[in-house]
Write a structure and sequence with these properties.
Blueprint lengths: L2 H25 L5 H27 L16 H11 L6
Helix pairs in contact: 1-2, 2-3
């Protein structure tokens, strides 16, 4: 497994555990292992998509132009929105 994927997975695991502790303390609700796994999977997917958006934005600094003379830089916001919509995610 790629080292960056390991880091993102570890972060998602920490997030899922913290969320389970929070729900237990604040809302007096104990989560099942499946529910904790679902929180991990959602956070892990979100982190991967965010990473993809960041990479796409980084590479959109190029000087290649479309038929209207605009460079990829002009499409940076659109790239991120397209990726979010494709994966049906909304980042706050």
């Amino acid at each position: 497994m790629n080292e960056r994927i390991r880091v993102l997975s570890a972060f998602a695991k920490s997030f899922a555990i913290a969320e389970a502790i929070h729900l237990s303390r604040v809302h007096n609700r104990t989560l099942s292992l499946d529910e904790i796994g679902e929180i991990h999977d959602q956070k892990f997917a979100e982190l991967i998509v965010r990473e993809c958006i960041a990479i796409a934005e980084h590479f959109s600094d190029g000087n290649e132009q479309d038929q209207f003379g605009r460079t990829l830089y002009h499409y940076r916001a659109d790239i991120g929105k397209e990726i979010e919509q494709y994966f049906s995610m909304s980042f706050q």
